[in-house]
């Protein structure tokens, strides 16, 4: 992809003018783009940005399915019963639920923002000033995670249904590290070395992610001296308990093996439930289980499909066949012609993405790790295109790059976070993973999403120039941190109030759920408006 970038750092961030009148000579694919009107060019680039966000949404389904196989991996443990002197075979999950929430779930759903920030940092290697898209997107994404995603989650449960956090201790630990992340960022930006980031500050930022993991695991295991003396209540052993009367999916078994129905047959099957991994008998119609045999009946957590039982290339071929299918059997049954046409149009819009993502290997290979890493690579590629489009949009429209980062980029790249938390609320009997994904994603955004890019830039500047990394428009970023911290306190206070009055953070009477939803959205609007006005020099 050809791309020419001729604007300077000062032109991106300087000035109080929202719109500039200078001609933008940057282009994405062809130099002839510069001959088009600025308004038409901005429209096309915004359209391309929206299409990239659709791609992120499409790849999220494959990401979740691969992560599902990673987390459900169990190891065989043989114990000797001394009385009858017999072997007892048990299968224990490799992943701890708390660590899985903070690493695979939170890190994975935040990977679009992390990729964008890292690419922005690599493009600025050799410059004494840090790029602005990364930090702006990550702070804006934190606000989107905390406010709109909480707003969605609080109304997802059915009317009157309550879902609360069962392990308050782990949530308090995650919440502490989430708040501390933004306090720490403000300290290094405004207190220790104003407007400058040293290599040691960047390194300490990254290392605190390890402290978060250690502290959360210690709280989950109730280690003495490192955990809060708060008992865990009402958390099912398998996190998502097996339903007593689960629906049995109709089975289409070919050659006595299971078949994994591919996503994409209709828009209601775009996302696979990542939390069904904790149930012995998944009621998700997307899956058909392998018939029990003597060697798999020993395990209470038998895999949905085994590599030796599957024709890998047949499954891979099926992915491409499904990607080219524009109308599903369910869609053909619809009597409404307009609805059928709308679905066909949407599937046609998704077809290029689906065909591209069909190259992701089947997600049951190597416990899902191959597909997991492949999806992250695709997400990084989309993030690279997003950074290019954002630079050109800022150049053409004159809108401050930070404003675009706070709004469009933050919302678009946070879509996987929204999907993950929504699924968690729908499937789990508690609110633990849904809210943990929000708080942990915010921590990951700072410790990894900002820490790693800054560590790359500071290390390069230290080695090449012996200079620290300077932060352009650090005052605007610090102001956004203060606004975010103030509004986030208001958000957490409401969650605590709901716990004390209604007995749960999510759900409850429909009226109060919607009141809470509107309140959270209002907090997000306040953050976006104040931050945008500040970085634009208006206030």
Structural class comes to: mainly alpha
Count of alpha and pi helical runs: 17
Measured on Cα atoms, how large is the radius of gyration? Answer: 24 Å
Contiguous runs where pLDDT drops below 50 for at least 5 residues: 1-21, 238-309
Strand order of the largest sheet: 1-2
Description:
- The protein is mostly helical and 539 residues long.
- Helix content is 58%, strand content 4%.
- It has 17 helices and 6 strands.
- The chain has helices spanning 9-13, 38-71, 97-109, 111-123, 133-146, 148-155, 168-192, 199-221, 312-323, 329-332, 337-357, 369-397, 401-413, 415-427, 432-464, 474-501, 510-535, and strands at 74-81, 86-93, 162-163, 196-197, 469-470, 506-507.
- The strands form 3 sheets. Strands 1-2 form a two-stranded antiparallel sheet. It has a two-stranded antiparallel ribbon with strand order 3-6. It has a two-stranded antiparallel ribbon with strand order 4-5.
- A hairpin with a 4-residue loop joins strand 1 and strand 2.
- Helix 7 runs parallel beside helix 15 and helix 16 runs antiparallel to helix 17 (510-535).
- The radius of gyration is 24 Å and the shape is globular.
- The chain starts with 8 loop residues before the first helix and ends with a helix.
What order do the helices and strands come in, and which of them pair?
Elements: H1 9-13, H2 38-71, E1 74-81, E2 86-93, H3 97-109, H4 111-123, H5 133-146, H6 148-155, E3 162-163, H7 168-192, E4 196-197, H8 199-221, H9 312-323, H10 329-332, H11 337-357, H12 369-397, H13 401-413, H14 415-427, H15 432-464, E5 469-470, H16 474-501, E6 506-507, H17 510-535
Helix pairs in contact: 2-3, 2-11, 2-12, 2-14, 3-8, 3-14, 3-15, 4-5, 4-12, 4-15, 5-6, 5-13, 5-15, 5-16, 5-17, 6-14, 6-17, 7-8, 7-15, 7-16, 8-15, 9-11, 12-13, 13-17, 14-15, 16-17
